[in-house]
Amino acid sequence: MREEIQKIKEDTLEQLTKLTSSEELQELKVRVMGKKGSLTSLLKQMGQLSAEERPKMGQIVNELRTQLEDAWDKKWREFEKNALESRLREERIDISLPGYSLPQGHQHPLSKVIEEIEDIFMGMGFTIAEGPEIETDYYNFEALNLPKDHPARDMQDTFFITEDILLRTQTSPVQIRTMEKQRPQLPVKIIAPGKVFRNDDDATHSPMFHQVEGLLVDKGVRMSDLKGLLLYFSRQMFGESREIRLRPSFFPFTEPSAEVDVSCMLCGGAGCRLCKGTGWIEILGAGMVHPHVLEMGGYNPKEVTGFAFGMGVERIAMLKYGIEDMRLLFDNDIRFLEQF
């Protein structure tokens, strides 16, 4: 048996030196010390030895087992070390190389236009006012001279939550809320940018879009003041050579009311595809605040007058940057946004 033990030892240690992978190491361990391994089979023959030889052989076998396990652990650590060194070589980073360029973010064109509008009007002494996007029927319609049965309500295709609660269709409710808050102080001079909601969705409309409302209430405010202010705004936004014209229109909360056109920034008024040959492009609606709206805001229409205007930010952005489909503004396509 001694010779068999010595042979197992020599054969195993020799094979250990020839192994090239941890898988081969595991296979060798099973062949020697597994349930059917050579060393295990030898142990099963211990019962055939005499009582005197059995303890001696048992000690020799245990010493061999310990020696082989130490050899396997050493070989295993060697394989682990080699694997780590190989991985480090493969994943080595050359720190002298330039870094990877990451795509840069860009400010959204709507954000740029809103900030530009705010800067223009703040430069003329206006302050920014805000109001809730979930609004009451009273502030969104009734206080703006649109009673329950008014036909102009149908033009706005409202998202109603309840009979009296809705998603605001315009930022005009901020005008009433601001007048109520400031009365009887003068002047009331605000712009109200924000999201509004209407049940509409196509290339030039979105169910959620942005508006900027403007309001000026004071003593002696005239229509000519409104025209001068909008002319200044148009030239700041679209270029110093722009002209505007006011066309009679109807809005329940202003009287008189007007649609405001700007001379085409592409053809300068000569007529082209953008302005459909007219030389003019509609940009906003405006007018003198209706006396009833002044009363609902807490001001006496016999003592003060005012004007109001409202513009769609998406329309301003599309005209300013030559965007033909409003849906591009909401697609979050990095290729589109990179242009701004």
From TrEMBL:
GO CC annotation: cytoplasm
InterPro entries xrefs: aa-tRNA-synth_II, aa-tRNA-synth_II/BPL/LPL, Phe-tRNA-synth_IIc_asu, Phe-tRNA_ligase_II_N, Phe_tRNA_ligase_alpha1_bac, Phenylalanyl-tRNA_Synthase, tRNA-bd_arm
Zinc found in the keyword field: no
EC number(s) from the headed UniProt entry: 6.1.1.20
Keywords per UniProt: Aminoacyl-tRNA synthetase, ATP-binding, Cytoplasm, Ligase, Magnesium, Metal-binding, Nucleotide-binding, Protein biosynthesis
Residues annotated to bind Mg(2+): 255
Annotated cofactor note: Binds 2 magnesium ions per tetramer.
Cofactor: Mg(2+)
Coarse class of the protein's main subcellular location: cytoplasm
Aminoacyl-transfer RNA synthetases class-II family profile domain ranges (all copies): 111-319
Localization terms from the record: Cytoplasm
Reaction(s) catalysed by this chain's protein: tRNA(Phe) + L-phenylalanine + ATP = L-phenylalanyl-tRNA(Phe) + AMP + diphosphate + H(+)
GO biological process, one term: phenylalanyl-tRNA aminoacylation
Enzyme class, first EC level, given as a word: ligase
GO molecular function term, any single one: tRNA binding
Superkingdom of source: Bacteria
Pfam families the record matches: Phe_tRNA-synt_N, tRNA-synt_2d
Listed PANTHER family: PHENYLALANINE--TRNA LIGASE, MITOCHONDRIAL (PTHR11538:SF41), PHENYLALANYL-TRNA SYNTHETASE (PTHR11538)
Quaternary data: Tetramer of two alpha and two beta subunits.
Recorded family membership: Belongs to the class-II aminoacyl-tRNA synthetase family. Phe-tRNA synthetase alpha subunit type 1 subfamily.
Name of the protein described by the UniProt record: Phenylalanine--tRNA ligase alpha subunit
